[in-house]
Every structure is written in C-alpha cells, then in structure tokens.
Amino acid sequence: MFDPRNHIENALQASRQLDELWKKNMDALGLRAVLKTAQWPENLKSARSGRFMLWRVGSSAGSPDGQGSLERAYGASVGKGNLARFSLPAFDRVYEQLNALPDGPERAEAEARIRAEVAEMKQKALAAGGLCVLG
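User: That's the sequence. What structure does it adopt?
Assistant: Structure tokens below.
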C-alpha cells in the first residue's frame, strides 16, 4: 500500500543529499555558497522577488505548444513565471508577436524561430562561461 509519508520523506532525504553535494562541490571550487532550506511558498516568494541566485526547481508543460516554457524568458514576466529575471528586448518582441498569432503554420514557424533563438542564447552563455538559467 502506498504511504505518502514515505514518499515525502524520501523526497526530503534526496533533496538534502543534493544540497550536501552542491555545497561540497562549491567548496571544492572555492565558491562560497549558502544553501537555504525552506517551505515551497517561502522559496517561491523569495525567487519571485529576486532574492534567489539559484533554485533547483522543475516544472511541467501546461499546454502542448510549450508557451509556458517561453514565458520563463519573457521580460514582462519577471517576478512571475520568469524567475531568472531574464530580459532581452529582441526576445520579448518575438514572444509578443507569437502570442498574437492564432494556431496554424505561421505560429508554428514563429515558435520554431524563437526556440532556435533561445538555443543560440544558451550556447553563447555557455561558451562565455556563464550559467544557463533558461529552461
């Protein structure tokens, strides 16, 4: 029989182990890291207000077109879905154009173009030695 308490305890234990591994590796690199453990609502409030540098959090798609994943890079969504506080006016313009299009070939083409731009931004950030924070 499934016991949700065991599931929750296993998840908490795995999270603690990941935190310990992050801390150990940051120390080995000579990087000072403070890992904050808190309840989900507290973490979300901190992330939305820009007080988190890094949060190990995942998400799932709410629609088949992946619009939500693109919103994570949309400047006007800073403090909401855009927890990284990323802002790039050129991306925002394409995102707004995409939002205005009805379902169909033109929208699919615009989605492909914006995804290619996101992939290019990730590559540039990684090549420059940066940390990629976009989904």
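The chain has five helices and no strands.
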